[in-house]
Predict the 3D structure of the following.
Amino acid sequence: MTTPDPPEPERVARAALTRLIEPGDAAIGRAIQRLGVVGLVQGFYHGASPSRLGLGADRITAYQERLRKFNPATDLERIAKLGGKFIIPGDTEWPSQLDDLGDSRPVGLWIRGRPRTRLPSLRLLALRSVAIVGSRACTAYGRHIAGQLGSELAERGWVVVSGAAYGVDTAAHQGALAVNGMTIAVLASGVDICYPRGNESLIERIGDAGLLVSELALGMNPTRFRFVLRNRVIAALTRGTVVVEAAPRSGALSTARRAMDLNRHTMGVPGQVTSELSAGVHALIRSGAATLVTNGAEVGELIGSIGNDLAPERVGPILPRDALVPSVARVLEAVPASADGAPVQRLAQYAALSPQETVHHLHELSSLGFVERHGAHWRLVRRK
């Protein structure tokens, strides 16, 4: 049995940072640009000067103390045993669109997926992915719409991305799983932590059928701010974000705002105008920041390939009178609904036609079953 090669220094250093720092730390991102990630972590180990690292002395001291309490190489071994991996910028599986986050892009991503099989490439999955987000305390309408969107998009080959929270997130994941589609949960904890606890079975299902993704090292628990920071990854990773239900102060709106900042498509599903849970979505649509969508086909048309993901045009029922030429239709419109009907002269006047033309069209309409003669008058045929 051959011994696996040890992880390269940059991967180890980035793994260490995922346990040291909070996600999206732009100061750390700038320090990496100046010193390289290995040089930065070595600076923490050795207590380099604040002027060299560009960080406060207290912060450097805190990082130095915390580095003594764990071994990042052990984290890399643990994720491998769980059937996952830790990917970093430069890997073939790294989604390059995350680089749009600039200095606050993730230093790396922990991924856990299908056990005993080769993990699918996150980069390839993200190329055709869409985020569905919304309120945790959603209504029955919100759950229904989110589940429907998840299943419709998955059936069209889209990867459904959400955060595995209660409410809209749960419904979106379940919708995709119901049709054996691919779904990704971006977590605000380590990929070995199932949170919220009530969604443990769902998160395990996503891990079996899709992917669990996080910026945080194994064993790290979620916090309020980590949920907000997680949203920027959801927005950057996907082609567009759909908000199903969101109150004016909903955290889901932060994902929509991030998507707008990153020039991603932002979409909103309308709800009842009296519903507070739809007020935030309606404000997005009204301001022009989001495009109104009502189903998966409309979402796919907006974010998909030009000409390949067109939604079917919605039309009302085609009635027999729709096939009438304009002059015949005008005569039909002139015939009153009363039982007595009207004489030809009056119908000709209303239809702006000659009496001869009007009589010709009335006989045509009679043969089609629209009108009937009643003495010297013409009237509409009564439908039984």
User: Anything to note?
Assistant: The two ends are 85 Å apart (CA to CA). The chain has 17 helices and twelve strands. The first strand starts at residue 85 and ends at 87.
